[in-house]
Design goal:
The protein folds into 2 domains: about 80 residues, no CATH class; about 200 residues, Rossmann fold (3-Layer(aba) Sandwich), CATH 3.40.50. The protein is about 45% helix and about 15% strand. It has a 7-stranded mixed beta sheet, sandwiched between helices. Bound molecules: S-adenosylmethionine.
């Protein structure tokens, strides 16, 4: 319950009936259990751990970027006709939205870099640097890349030492040790030093926060862009994610991802309440010619004057 006694949206979504009777990758018995609104019991969690590395990782370490990395690496054109539980999670509409968030947001970030001379970027909760590497890959295909890449300093901050190590290894392998850096730490803590940035990237971090907690997070993030009068790109999950894919949303949530999808109106209010002025909102489905509403809001904002 929220402070005003109202049920949180997460609780409401957990109580809605979701029908698993036709989801073929699960045995009949499991389909019945999944359709129940009860929390998953130990046996069901054990079943997931034994039959799906992706589900097992969520149940064991919900904050890890292993899942995002796995989804980003999934390259089949669509869900195969005979699919495993991992295929279901990765190729469902929810998995595809996450997959598409990487190129969509990276394209937007690449454009931002081409338009700015000073590009000190701090990627908070940046995991193993997926967005840094994808953005630089997109830029590398553009004319003038050699001069553009020199102005990029992209620091990914993450609390997960495993993700930091992976990122450092990739930075070295890709010859980007002068552009892509990694810092281990909790950016929400006052003890974590401020890195003055022209741009903060905050992707997949607000998704698990209620509007109230998201406001607090965005307030804490202000210090990274205050000195330079910088901007932020933040991506957060929308309620459309449940509407379009209740089957996977429910599995992710019951395994341990406390997803807090927001309406577009709530997203606007969160940024406003945290003292930001929204410049633009994209989604993972934007095309060259039109804005298409998606499962994620990719918000560009600056601090209010
Ligand atoms: C869902 S992953 C997203 C990773 C990456 N931004 C992406 O979208 O691919 C969330 C990441 O945020 C990190 N994280 C969450 N809270 C954090 C905090 N307070 N300080 C540092 N890292 C944090 C987690 O360790 C995890 O790697």
């Amino acid at each position: 319950m929220s402070e005003n006694g109202r049920k949180e949206r997460f609780e409401e979504l957990m109580e809605m009936y979701v029908d698993y009777s036709n989801v073929e990758c699960f045995p009949e018995r499991i389909r019945r259990e999944l359709s129940s609104t009860e929390p998953y019991d130990e046996d069901l969690i054990k079943f997931f751990k034994q039959n799906s590395p992706v589900a097992g990782e969520i149940a064991t370490n919900p904050a890890s970027d292993f899942i995002t990395r796995t989804v980003y690496a999934s390259t089949l054109p669509q869900m195969p006709p005979r699919y495993s539980i991992d295929d279901l999670l990765v190729y469902s509409p929810g998995g595809r939205a996450l997959f598409n968030r990487l190129p969509a947001a990276s394209k937007i970030l690449a454009k931002w870099i081409t338009e700015h001379e000073s590009c000190d970027i701090v990627d908070l909760g940046g995991g193993s640097g997926s967005y840094a590497f994808k953005t630089i890959e997109i830029l590398s295909k553009m004319k003038g890349f050699n001069s553009i890449v020199k102005r990029i300093s992209w620091t990914s901050v993450d609390i997960d030492s495993g993700a930091i190590e992976l990122g450092k290894a990739r930075s070295k392998a890709d010859g980007l040790t002068g552009q892509v850096f990694f810092e281990e730490g909790n950016f929400m803590s006052k003890k974590f030093p401020t890195i003055d940035a022209d741009l903060v990237v905050l992707i997949g971090v607000l998704c698990g926060m209620t509007p109230e907690v998201a406001v607090t997070c965005l307030e804490k993030v202000r210090r990274f862009i205050e000195t330079r009068n910088g901007e932020i790109y933040a991506a957060t999950l929308l309620t459309r994610s449940f509407e379009e894919d209740p089957i996977c949303f429910r599995i992710f949530a019951k395994l341990g991802w406390h997803l807090k999808p927001k309406t577009e109106e709530e997203v606007r209010k969160v940024f406003n309440d945290a003292g930001y002025e929204i410049i633009d909102i994209h989604s993972e489905r934007d095309t060259e010619t039109e804005r298409v509403p998606g499962q994620y809001a990719i918000v560009r904002a600056r601090l209010k004057a």
